[in-house]
Specification:
The complex is a heterodimer. Chain A is built from twelve helices and no strands. Chain A is mostly helical. By secondary structure, chain B is α/β, with parallel strands linked by helices. Helices cover 34% and strands 24% of the residues of chain B. Chain B contains nine helices and ten strands. Chain B has a six-stranded mixed beta sheet, sandwiched between helices. A four-stranded antiparallel beta sheet of chain B has the order 2-1-4-5. In chain B, helix 7 links the parallel strand 7 and strand 8. In chain B, helix 4 crosses helix 5, helix 5 crosses helix 6 and helix 8 packs across helix 9. The relative contact order of chain B is 0.18. Classes of the chains: A mainly alpha, B alpha/beta.
Amino acid sequence: MMHYMRAFNGIVWRELLRFLQQRERFLAALVRPLIWLIIFAAGFRAALGISIIPPYQTYITYDVYITPGLLAMIQLFNGMQSSLAMVYDREMGSMRVLLTTPLPRWFLLLSRLFAGVLVSLFQVYAFLLVAWFFGVELPLWGYVAALPALILTGMMFGSLGMLLSSTIKQLENFAGIMNFVIFPMFFASSALYPLWKMREGSLWLYYISFYNPFTWAVELIRFAFYLEVNWQALAVVSGCTVLFLALSVWAYDPSFGIQQRKIGTAPVTG
Amino acid sequence: MQKEACEHVPPRSPVLTVKNVSYWYGDKRALDDVSFDVYPGKVTALLGPNGAGKTTLFSLITRLFDAPEGRIEICGRAATEWGAKALGPLGVVFQQPTLDLDLTVKQNLRYFAALRGLRRKEADERMIAALKALDMAERIGERVRSLNGGHRRRVEIARSLLHSPQLLLLDEPTIGLDDPTRRAIVRHVHELARRDNIGVLWATHLFDEVQPDDDLLVISRGTIVARGVAKEVVAETGAKDLGGAFTLLIGGETEQDVAA
């Protein structure tokens, strides 16, 4: 058991070290949602009225509405960044050090996933602090209550990233994945507009958004800030996390996975 | 803790056994019915040209992926049945560099030590000893990115020894290094094998890295074409040195890939 704990600490410690060394990454993680909050929300505040829908019990400003979506966006970007780091580690060889550790691969992947979630939580709370200075005030206890939801959503995005990292053959292909995953997931969701509003505008977009796991991550976070549980969101996010994680573990399994194609083909020189 | 993993193995038993292992990439055969043993305290040189299957064999032994045919035993137990624990007795230096360039030497070694379950204090002590043995102790605080290729290799070798492995796998560890550094590493590993009773599998395409008393496996196109004590293999072919013997054994097809 001590071996598991030390390995877990080692993996988390390494991720934090790498994160602290990449100040640009931290800055980008803050600036991206802040641009949405300050510029986009300011413009839409006048154009888009948010009626009273659960979990809100009163009228809210648009910047308060989009904050959970921006938190999910931070976590989605972070999940993809972790995925990119895994592809980079595989290409640079350091992934081999992790995969030849005498511990079950699921544990190693899960530890790496937790490390990524921890990094995303730093980013999320730093953003919330900055957003507070810009006047986005959420219920005080919501900052605490949202933590379990943020951990779960972070795990969902992290495991999605991990799954993608097992299917991406080369680092160069990653930009395409970013475009095809991050932006459609974010825009076709309830991050920017409530689902009922979307339904009025476009039925097909409503259905895409309804079946988009990102929507449910946003809703889980949104409700948690108001000390409520959106059970449907919880079920979807939990289910997706388990599914993505199981597929990742399968993909990285030495007996069954698809990882051997990548590890096997690239460096066969001797 | 890794010592315990091999404690059940009777003395003079192989620390690594590869039995009838075959492997394909699609329809391209990379290994064909490969079998051999590696014994404690001995260096086994796996000599073959580029593309002979050495790296594939290392990937299978380290369980980066599993062999669909054949059996690999570490300390007498099948690696696939033993699971991840089979990797416990292994120290590995891959052909491809595996250090994190943005971390310091110390941070890299501490990370590895944590993955191997070593306590921080114990890890630091071992790290200093391993780096001292390779004349790298004074570079411990430097970022790996600032080290040259030879020094990075030394750090990787030091790292592979941190947890006192029973089986050391070295996949062309001296590639790209200058002659004095290569010779120093060859000497150090042979000393380690003798002193600490470690079984070493050393993949190389350089003849001068094979000592006359080493066990030798010559691999070509995924097949073991000769085996035995190096000096005896040379004598059996009637060649005057290992280079000549190698050319005879692999039919002279790819000797340009192999250098003295």
